[in-house]
Specification:
heterodimer; A: two-stranded antiparallel sheet; 2 strands; globular; B: about 250 residues; mainly alpha; 2 domains; about 75% helix
């Protein structure tokens, strides 16, 4: 899911950073007072949860959960994903530092879109929250996959096949993300529904 | 895994003694220079520089190689794609894949002397010293602090699930169970935030002064180290331009 250091040209990296700075500045404005520790602690949970590996065919994949981050944190999803990427790069060297901007856009923008769609869906389709959870998890992964393919394609015509392969690789991950997000939404709906729409 | 870096932040080299703000800026410039490289020889030189910095910082070579090897293996998939898709033919494709892999290795290696030569909380505070928004840096520090807590809680939950006979399988039940575990962690974190906020207020959060405080004025030796990193970045780009026939 990450784009590593060394793959993309500098103008694309710079554009990614510019978009990330803008989106982070915009979304950080809404995080005040008690929202600050709440966002941080939940970001830590998402970070740790992303270390869970789920069996897939002969291999396993780690969770992304950006759809679930959008569902739970709303607008705060973008800084949460940005922080997660920084810590992943520094602690595990996953994803790289120069690509943080591009990766944040790739995962954070779909999370913001999904957070709005989920809230709109809950208002329009009451009683379908669990189904909306699956949609949130799966569609967020698909959107991120599309953005990943788009960013890879900006590196030149030689990267088109890599972009297609990356997108195809996201299809099974989409189902896994949808399944796990459904499980979490179902759990929270029964135990603490406030969490599914409490944060701004 | 998230605590590996803690072992190497204590003073072991002159890079450990360098002001974190200048260290982060200097290595960030080096990373930008590396991302500009387009020739295999310059990318190889970047690998040499980064490896030299790792050795100079007296960081654990085996751990560094293991982490870097994973990234190199992942990037090597470009060798399977680019030779067949490059408009310039297979030779140009192999060369481009080689540049990507070497640059990727060099940049991953650079992260170690950049962040693993100081306690991580100090490097993160240095970001506030570099005028990053305090709110973002506070979030980063708090997240980093609670990652350790929830990593341990996840390990406990994993053990309790195994004790009840749960095994990871390729089915919907496994996904539902993982979803429940994530939900449980979120619930616990939600319950904890009120107390965390009160504790932050007790410790003076929101009052005058900020997290960027505590950095002494920049010394001449730190200035020299930064100038050296800046010079290396310029030389690397100039070497690459020379190889590309720009002068």
């Amino acid at each position: 899911m990450h784009i590593s250091d060394g793959v993309l040209p500098l103008p694309v990296l710079a554009a990614g950073w510019a978009a990330t700075v803008g989106l982070a500045a915009w979304t950080l404005r809404g995080i005040e007072g008690e929202d600050l520790p709440r966002t941080a602690v939940m970001t830590a949970v998402f970070f740790v949860a992303s270390l869970i590996h789920v069996p897939l065919g002969p291999t396993s994949v780690h969770l992304i959960l950006n759809g679930l981050v959008g569902v739970i944190l709303g607008g705060a999803a973008f800084p949460a994903i940005l922080l997660g990427l920084v810590l992943q790069a520094v602690l595990f060297q996953h994803g790289g530092l120069t690509t943080i901007g591009v990766n944040a856009v790739m995962m954070g923008l779909p999370a913001l879109a999904v957070s709005h769609l989920f809230r709109f869906g809950r208002r329009s389709l009451p009683g379908r929250t669990v189904l909306l959870g699956f949609f949130a998890g799966a569609s967020c992964t698909l959107l991120s996959g599309c953005l990943l393919a788009l960013f890879l394609a900006t590196a030149g015509a030689a990267f088109f096949p890599a972009a297609k392969l990356a997108l195809i690789a996201h299809l099974p991950v989409m189902l896994i993300e949808g399944g796990v997000t459904t499980g979490t939404v179902n759990f929270l709906l029964r135990v603490e529904p406030k969490l599914l729409g409490e944060l701004k | 895994m998230t605590t590996d870096h803690l072992l190497y932040g204590a003073e072991r080299s002159s890079l450990h003694r360098m002001d974190e703000r200048l260290k982060l800026t200097g290595f960030a410039l080096l990373l930008i220079a590396m991302s500009l490289l387009q020739t295999p020889v310059a990318a190889l030189a970047a690998c040499g520089l980064a490896a030299g910095a790792v050795v100079f910082a007296r960081l654990p070579v085996v751990l560094v190689l293991r982490r870097t090897g994973g990234v190199a293996l992942f990037l090597s998939t470009f060798f399977l794609i680019l030779p067949f898709s490059h408009p310039g033919g297979s030779r140009a494709g192999v060369q481009e894949a080689l540049v990507i892999v070497l640059k990727g290795i060099a940049m991953v290696l650079t992260i170690f002397p950049m962040f693993w030569t100081a306690p991580l909380h100090r490097s993160l505070k240095a970001l506030a010293g570099l005028r990053l928004p305090q709110r973002l840096v506070t979030l980063l520090l708090l997240t980093f602090r609670y990652v350790q807590t929830y990593e341990m809680r996840l390990a406990q939950l994993r053990i309790s699930l195994q004790a009840r006979g749960f095994r990871f399988r390729r089915n919907l039940e496994t996904l539902r169970m993982i979803g429940g575990v994530v939900g449980l962690l979120l619930l616990r974190s939600f319950e904890q935030t009120e107390r965390i906020y009160q504790a932050m207020l007790c410790r003076g959060y929101g009052k005058k002064g900020g997290i960027a405080e505590g950095f002494p004025p920049v010394s001449i030796s730190d200035g020299c180290r930064f100038a050296f990193l800046f010079l290396l970045s310029l030389l690397l780009v100039a070497f690459d331009l020379h190889l590309r026939g720009w002068g």
